[in-house]
Fold this sequence. Notes:
The chain is mainly beta. The chain folds into 2 domains: 17-65, SH3 type barrels; 119-286, Porin. The chain has helices at 5-10, 134-140; strands at residues 18-22, 27-35, 39-44, 52-56, 60-64, 70-72, 119-131, 142-153, 158-168, 172-174, 180-199, 207-228, 237-258, 261-270, 276-286.
Amino acid sequence: MKVFILLLVLSCICFAQDTIYKTDGTEIKSKVIEITNDLIKYKKFSNLDGPSYTVSKTDVFMIVYQNGEREVFKKNEQPAKVEEPKPEYQAPTPVRETPATEIRYAPSTTPQETFTKTVFYIPIKFGVHSYTEEAFSKIYGACYMVGAGIGVWFPNHIAGELSVDLIYNRSTKVEMTGNIRDAEANLTAVPINLTTYFWFEFPEGKIVPYIGGGVTHISVTETVEFEARPYGSSTWTKQKLSESVDKWGFNLLGGVQIYFLDIELRYTKTDPNLGGISFMASFNLPLN
Length: 288
């Protein structure tokens, strides 16, 4: 999917040629011929039949091609690693003998407090989300995530859940050159997930691993605020671009429930890819 930062650059370009933006703020109107590991080979747009020129990739910030596509070059950049929290170790709970008339398991606030009845619950979720689309991942990195929904656990090892999440990030500054400056981007996504689970019974029901999958509808809104200066002008004006996209896709997940806490890893895929990987913790509030 095209990133909306592209619209920001294209709003200032009205010629059908490749434009090379150098890190020193200069621009080269050209026709790019070849890109190697170290060099960019091009011809000047004003003399396409003339000689070929080269420029080091380390001196280039970005290329905007005549068809609107862009290619960004960044030096010595490694994607940020997000360390996912690990569930704390839970010491085994001593098991006491109970009369036959009592519930099979010790009292609990979790949906699986007993495997002999249907339990409805409300999940309260929070965690982090990383987009699998490369452009989004480079600009926004890991985003915050909160959500809620309603779910049901059945005694036949099947469960279902409808949840609505909010994925958001803090304003991200985007480095620009030429006639664009002070650019800040915001990305907000609202996935709606309808998921079916299969859970596995462990002794005493204290730890319940599960897997699942389902359908996802995701709405993504990207907003970019910046200052722009028309060519030949010395006046900077504030501008704002915003666009929303809605897509359907699917989700796959796996997790473990420990007492009243769920630890879950979810993968979401749409076309074009607006999904990603979410690591979430969820507190379940039983309704019956």
